[in-house]
Amino acid sequence: MWTVNSDGRLGNQMGQYATLYALAKLNSHPAYIPPAMHRFLAPLFRITLPVIPTVVADKIHWRNFPLHNWMSEEYCHIEGKYVQLTGYPYSFTFYDHIRQEILREFSFHDHVKAESNRYLLGLKGQRTNVTYVGVHVRRGDYVYIMPQNNKGVVADRGYLEKAMSYFRKKYHNSIFVVASNDMEWCRQNIDASRRDVHFAGDGKESSPERDFALIAHCNHTIMTIGSFGLWASHLAGGETVYLANFTLPESPFLKRNKPSQIYLPSWIGIPADLSPLLH
Q: What is residue 204's predicted lDDT score, i.e. its pLDDT?
């Protein structure tokens, strides 16, 4: 049996689950998830991988197999009957060949769908032919981690204006649904004067699952950085605008990640403003 480390929050857990599902299948081994991962994902999604009880897992001598965040040929031939994949993989290259299977694994429960659709319908008012655009603004610890550890930036006001302008020009009746872990910043930096912007959640991550479901039920997505917005974009389908080139060329982030292996080729990248890093 194969398993995976359960570490991080929702986006990380989804990446670990999808990668385990794909690589175990590729190597013809049954996959089992830890109880902690089941607690993260099962309330939202109709996942099918069985859970391995902790008392059983603790008795197994696992071969830990660290992954980098893109698919490699060697991952098609991983040796071992009891393998535990480790790391924070979320590249689409691990599971692109079974994309529809992975999306089915992350099908929302009916009550989650109903709640999200009810909320979105309430924003519509008297308008017709509405296009919903989910906007995920990841800030929190990234505000410090990106410049200090990764020689990078987070999304700023200018990026969000450009991204929203793209959808406003393309879709006549756009409604932007904003979720963030820093809603105060969003309210101060996102222009809501057109009355087409709605701030969802409390911005304190007290209900990240609800925020995620709302964004994923929109027609299109504006993401900034992080696996949360990435997975919401995959599940929403439609068009995705993302923050591109958000690090300097010598960033440690680029040693662990390949942007071309993270963002789908059809997605639209808007380059970040790196000038704060050059002062």
A: 63
Residues in the chain: 279
Calpha distance 69→46 (Å, rounded): 25
Distance CA 47, CA 38 (A): 8
Side-chain half-sphere CA neighbours of 103 within 13 A = 13
Q: Determine the pLDDT at residue 172.
A: 87
- Burial (CB < 10 A; 0-12, 13-18, 19+), residue 16, is buried
Task: Tell me what the mean pLDDT of segment 69-98 comes to.
Answer: 96
Taking CA atoms, 262 is separated from 18, 62, 125, 176, in Å, by 14, 28, 36, 24
pLDDT at 202 over 70: no
22 pLDDT tier (thresholds 50, 70, 90)? very high
Q: Is the dihedral of CA 59, 64, 69, 73 positive or negative?
A: negative
Residue pair 179/185 in contact (Cβ under 8 Å)? The answer is no
Find out whether 267 and 166 touch, Cβ atoms under 8 Å.
no
For 199, residues 6+ apart whose C-beta sits below 8 A from its C-beta are 178, 183, 186, 187, 192
Q: d(Cα 156, Cα 141) in Å, to the nearest integer?
A: 15
Read off the tokens for 172.
């006549």
Residue 170 has pLDDT above 70, yes or no: yes
User: Phi/psi of residue 60, each to 5°?
Assistant: -95, 140
* E strand intervals along 181-272: 197-199, 220-223, 240-244, 268-271
